[in-house]
C-alpha cells in the first residue's frame, strides 16, 4: 500500500476496534478518510461519529433506528441506510479502498465476502469470519484482487514476524494468550465467578463479547483457527502459550530453531495503525504507545490449562473435524456468551452448551456458503434448546 489517500469503510464503527480505528484515521487526515461507517444498534454514537467524520454513507443494521438516525443527521450530505444487507453493499462501494471489519461475531461474514468479491484491502478484526468459513474465504482470496491484513494483535504480530521470510521456513506459530482474569483460579472457583469478574480483563480494554471470550479462552481457540487459515499452518504447528504480561504479542519459530517475536504495549491502536499503513509503518508520537522494556524486567510464559478451560480443546477438535464444525462452535459460543452476560447461566455452563451444540448439530464435511448460513441458524436453535432445558 502506498501513502496515497485512502477511503476507509469502518464496519462496526461504534465498537471498541471501530472507535480506535477512527482515532487512527484522525491522526492522519491527509492519508485517510472515513468514507463509510456502520453500526448494529448504537445509532446515537453513530450519529456523533457521522457529524465528526462526515462519511459519504452510514448504515444502521437495526432498521428500527433508521428514522432516529435520519432525523439526527438532517441537513448533512450523508446518505443514511439501514439493514444488514446494506452493510455488505457499503463494503463493496467503488470509492472504498480499505474495509476494516470490526463487527462482532458471525455478522461479519457476509460483508467480508462482499468486500473480497469487490477486490478491497481488508483490515480483518472479525476473527469469526475465518472461524466460520476459513476454507471458503481462503479460496475466495486466491481468485480475487483482495488482500487480508490481520488486525488482531496476535495475528498482526505473526504477520509482522513473517514479513521478509519464506512461509515454508516457518516451523511453528507461538500464539500468546494473556490467560485472562481467571488464570490462577481453580475449577471450583470458576463455578462461582460473576459477569463483573469476567469483564475485568487484566491488560486489554475490549468489548464485552471479546472480553468474555478472553476469560473463557475461547478467544484463543478462535485465534488458533484464524491463524490456521491466515498463514496456511496446520493446527499441530500452532502452540498456545500463556504470557500474562501481554507484551510479546506472538512469535514464529523457524526451521533453524530461531524465534522471531513482536513486542509492544497492549494497545489495539498499534496493530490497527500497522494494517492501515501496510507495508509502510506510520509514525506515532503517542508516548503511551511506546514500550519501555525497563518496566517489564520479567516476561513469563506457561502452558494453558486445557482441563480448566475446555473451550480451547473444543476449538482444536472443531478445526480437526473441519467442515461446518467451527461454524457450529462459533454459534454455540455466541449464544453462551450472550446468556452469561444476561446472567442466565454460569461461567462454567458455557462449555457445556458448546459441547451439546457440537454434538447435536448435523455435521457437513464440505459446506457451501448456504450450508454455513443454515448451520449457523440450526446451531443457534439447538443452543436455545439447551438453554430452555436448563431453565425448566
Question: What does this molecule look like?
Answer:
- The termini are far apart.
- The protein has helices spanning 16-27, 43-53, 66-72, 84-91, 109-117, 128-142, 153-162, 187-190, 195-198, 208-216, 218-230, 269-277, 310-321, 325-341, 349-360, 369-391; strands spanning 6-11, 32-39, 57-60, 79-82, 98-101, 121-124, 147-150, 170-177, 238-242, 248-254, 259-263.
- The strands form 2 sheets. A 7-stranded parallel beta sheet has the order 4-3-2-1-5-6-7, with helices on both faces.
- α10 (208-216) packs across α14 (325-341) and α14 runs parallel beside α16 (369-391).
- α1 (16-27) links the parallel β1 (6-11) and β2.
- The chain is α/β, with parallel strands linked by helices.
Largest beta sheet: strand ordering: 4-3-2-1-5-6-7
Question: How many alpha or pi helices?
Answer: 16
What about the largest sheet? 7 strands, parallel
Q: What radius of gyration results from the CA coordinates?
A: 20 Å
Mean pLDDT, nearest integer?
94
Low-confidence segments = none
Distance between the termini: 56 Å
Order of helices and strands: EHEHEHEHEHEHEHEHHHHEEEHHHHH
Q: So what's the overall shape?
A: globular
- Helix fraction, binned, reads 40-55%
Quantity of strands, as a count? 11
Structural class call reads alpha/beta
Name the assembly state: single chain
Strand content: 15-25%
Amino acid at each position: 500500500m502506498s501513502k496515497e489517500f485512502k477511503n476507509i469503510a469502518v464496519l462496526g464503527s461504534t465498537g471498541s476496534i471501530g472507535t480506535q480505528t477512527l482515532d487512527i484515521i484522525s491522526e492522519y487526515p491527509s492519508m485517510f478518510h472515513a468514507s463509510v461507517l456502520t453500526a448494529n444498534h448504537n445509532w446515537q454514537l453513530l450519529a456523533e461519529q457521522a457529524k465528526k467524520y462526515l462519511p459519504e454513507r452510514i448504515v444502521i443494521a437495526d432498521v428500527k433506528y433508521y428514522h432516529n438516525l435520519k432525523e439526527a443527521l438532517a441537513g448533512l450530505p450523508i446518505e443514511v441506510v439501514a439493514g444488514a444487507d446494506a452493510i455488505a453493499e457499503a463494503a463493496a462501494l467503488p470509492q472504498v479502498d480499505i474495509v476494516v471489519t470490526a463487527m462482532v461475531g458471525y455478522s461479519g461474514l457476509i460483508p467480508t465476502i462482499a468486500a473480497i468479491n469487490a477486490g478491497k484491502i481488508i483490515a480483518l478484526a472479525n476473527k469469526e469470519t475465518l472461524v466460520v468459513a476459513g476454507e471458503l474465504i481462503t479460496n475466495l482470496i486466491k481468485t480475487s484482487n483482495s488482500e487480508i491484513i490481520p488486525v488482531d494483535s496476535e495475528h498482526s504480530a505473526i504477520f509482522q514476524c513473517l514479513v521478509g521470510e519464506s512461509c515454508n521456513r516457518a516451523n511453528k506459530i507461538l500464539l500468546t494468550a494473556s490467560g485472562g482474569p481467571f488464570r490462577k483460579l481453580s475449577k471450583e472457583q470458576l463455578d462461582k465467578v460473576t459477569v463483573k469478574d469476567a469483564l475485568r480483563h487484566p491488560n486489554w480494554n475490549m468489548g464485552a463479547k471479546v472480553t468474555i471470550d478472553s476469560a473463557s479462552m475461547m478467544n484463543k481457540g478462535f485465534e488458533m483457527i484464524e491463524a490456521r487459515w491466515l498463514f496456511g499452518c496446520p493446527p499441530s504447528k500452532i502452540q498456545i502459550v500463556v504470557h500474562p504480561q501481554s507484551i510479546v504479542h506472538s512469535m514464529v519459530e523457524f526451521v533453524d530453531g530461531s524465534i522471531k517475536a513482536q513486542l509492544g504495549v497492549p494497545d489495539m491502536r498499534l496493530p490497527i495503525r500497522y494494517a492501515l499503513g501496510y507495508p509502510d509503518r506510520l509514525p506515532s508520537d503517542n508516548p503511551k504507545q511506546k514500550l519501555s522494556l525497563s518496566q517489564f524486567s520479567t516476561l513469563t510464559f506457561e502452558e494453558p490449562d486445557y482441563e480448566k478451560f475446555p473451550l480451547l480443546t473444543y476449538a482444536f477438535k472443531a478445526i480437526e473435524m473441519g467442515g461446518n464444525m467451527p461454524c457450529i462452535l462459533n454459534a454455540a459460543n455466541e449464544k453462551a456468551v450472550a446468556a452469561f452476560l444476561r446472567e442466565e447461566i454460569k461461567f462454567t455452563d458455557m462449555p457445556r452448551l458448546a459441547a451439546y451444540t457440537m454434538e447435536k448439530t448435523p455435521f457437513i464435511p464440505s459446506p457451501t456458503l448456504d450450508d454455513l448460513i443454515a448451520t449457523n441458524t440450526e446451531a443457534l436453535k439447538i443452543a436455545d434448546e439447551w438453554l430452555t432445558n436448563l431453565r425448566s
